[in-house]
Amino acid sequence: MLTVGVDLAAEAARTAVAWLGWEEGRARLTGVAVRADDDQVVRAVTGAAKAGFDCPLGWPDRFVDFVSAHRAGHVRVPEGVAGRVWRRDLALRVTDQVVHEQTGLTPLSVSADRIGHATMRCAGLLAELALRGRTVDRRGGGAVVEVYPAAALKRWGLPYRGYKRAANLAALGRLVDRLLEAAPWLDLGEHERVCRASDDATDAVVCALAARAAALGLVTAPPEDQAGVAATEGWIALPTAPLDRLVTAG
Q: Which Pfam family is an annotated match for this chain, by its short name (predicted)?
């Protein structure tokens, strides 16, 4: 099995792709691309059994309705409700709120933060994948599943904060050390140097690990009463099993 991880940013400059090949009892990082453009991302996903995207796959339904109502005339603000309370459902998707409840982490708001730019790019990529015949299901059932590296790392008992940007290279190195200790079956090979130098590359590897968990069914799925909204907003798949299950399951 080949899984791919995509740490998707609005532009290629901060986008990384990682390819993980899975054999019995082991996984090998067969490639890492930093500064990955749209064509690289699409080709990577097309050749993989499952791809994990670190990017929202959609916008909050209530935000979309809000903007549509505003364009048509005037929105109706709920009476007797604090502004930040009614705006929460505009800023956060259902899956974002579920992730917060389950992990204590709050994903960036796709409608009120700069990650919206990455989601615009993502929407184009998903459309291209669909044109090429890949099944795109924002709930995670198709070629792409939405993942959240910080939450995955936290669930696997690994460092999940403080390793971003060049100023924190030492912390990034410690994360890579901890990951290899926790997963001795993971071979980064010649690409380990890139992972230690680029948090984008490391996040892409984590995305590829989470994609493997999704392919094995070892992640959260939207319950029946949230499946409809997840189909439009997207759904963050959180790992539900220890890291070692990625090579022992099935």
A: DUF429
| Contact (Cβ atoms closer than 8 angstroms) between residue 146 and residue 108 | no
Closest CA to 244 of 207, 216, 223: 216
Write out pLDDT tens, residues 56-99. 999 999 999 999 999 999 888 877 776 778 888 899 999 999 99
Domain boundaries, the chain: 2-57+95-248, 59-92
Angle at 33 between CA 4 and CA 214, to 5 degrees: 15
Q: Which helix (H) or strand (E) holds 50?
A: strand 50-53
Q: What's the pTM?
A: 0.96
Do residues 235 and 138 make contact, with C-beta atoms less than 8 angstroms apart? yes
Which has the closest alpha carbon to 189: 167, 175, 205, 178?
A: 205
